[in-house]
Amino acid sequence: MTGSGLPALLLTGGSGQVGCALREAPPEGFEVVAPPRAELDLADPASVRRWVGARPWAAIINAGAWTAVDAAESHAAEAWAANALGPAALARASGEAGIPLVHLSTDYVFDGGLDRPYREDDPVGPTSVYGASKAAGELAVTALNPRHVILRTAWVFSPWGANFVRTMLRLGQARDALSVVADQHGCPTSAQDIAAGVGAVCARLSGDGAPSGVFHFAGAGETTWFGLASRVFERAAAAGRRSPALTPIASADWPTPVRRPANSRLDTTAFTRTFGRAPRPWTETADEVTDRLLASAEGEGDAA
Ligand SMILES: NC(=O)c1ccc[n+]([C@@H]2O[C@H](COP(=O)([O-])OP(=O)(O)OC[C@H]3O[C@@H](n4cnc5c(N)ncnc54)[C@H](OP(=O)(O)O)[C@@H]3O)[C@@H](O)[C@H]2O)c1
């Protein structure tokens, strides 16, 4: 318990997309405590131990991560510190204290070569430093704290931070035409829906039957980046905003240091069955986030 009288959740990455969503809408019946990175640095095991031991947390939510996929290739040590060593330190400390750990992970643990949505027990095969570091984080969490829930998600967007929807709206204000990759397939997921999913996990934290393991949580339905951009600009145009001409292109025409998985789709059947809540359709959540961004100052073209 803390000042609010509610059981407290320790949240890492509180300034990120998922972290902002969890601070805006905490899991029902819990208070969220989110120390800034300067106080709880995943790359600093001593600060991790200090925070885990600070209170009798109801659970720890690890939404902190090195998420700059391309930059991770040239900053492997930093990416591994945040994505593998940090989760290991969190899992060891929380495991020893008997505190459940909810850990966010990614579709990038897969190579994207499968021709159907990935299930939890499909073999991982990361093709990037980021993906490998996240896969190592999953292993550490699994090994060091039996009371864990690992949520793999994908294509996260929100009103906060750096994400595709915000980037599209910003570019759309400035350009008449945009080329968007149309041969990568995935399930866009709003950070707010992930926060709701974390809430469903937190509702099942205590008791003998508390679920543990790896679960996929990503927006219902599927599309491509081109499909997501089209949806965003249809919404913007309906609101009377400028909408650029969109051209679908191949990944090969948009080279990046890390080759993105062609198939990022995640099968969320197990999450829905286990926690009694299905991820929302990506179309609905994309519309909501687009509306919110359009209603804010940055919808006028001021996005950072
Ligand atoms: N974004 C996606 O499309 C995506 C897709 C699949 C899975 N995921 C996973 O979902 C989770 C949340 O992602 P997100 O999009 O919310 O991330 P995000 O917006 O990039 O935010 C990352 C957060 O992690 C914090 N952080 C970075 N390094 C840290 C460190 N060494 N110690 C403590 N905190 C640190 C950042 O703090 P600062 O503000 O100080 O930098 C920030 O609060 C991550 O596990 C990510 O791997 C994301």
From TrEMBL:
Details of cofactor binding: Binds 1 Mg(2+) ion per monomer.
One BP term from GO: dTDP-rhamnose biosynthetic process
EC numbers, comma separated: 1.1.1.133
Any Pfam family hit: RmlD_sub_bind
Pathway: Carbohydrate biosynthesis; dTDP-L-rhamnose biosynthesis
Catalytic activity field: dTDP-beta-L-rhamnose + NADP(+) = dTDP-4-dehydro-beta-L-rhamnose + NADPH + H(+)
Domain of life the protein comes from: Bacteria
Occurrences of domain RmlD-like substrate binding (ranges): 9-293
UniProt xrefs under InterPro entries: dTDP_dehydrorham_reduct, NAD(P)-bd_dom_sf, RmlD-like-bd
Keyword Oxidoreductase: yes
Cofactor(s) listed: Mg(2+)
Keywords: NADP, Oxidoreductase
A molecular function GO annotation: dTDP-4-dehydrorhamnose reductase activity
EC primary class: oxidoreductase
Protein name: dTDP-4-dehydrorhamnose reductase
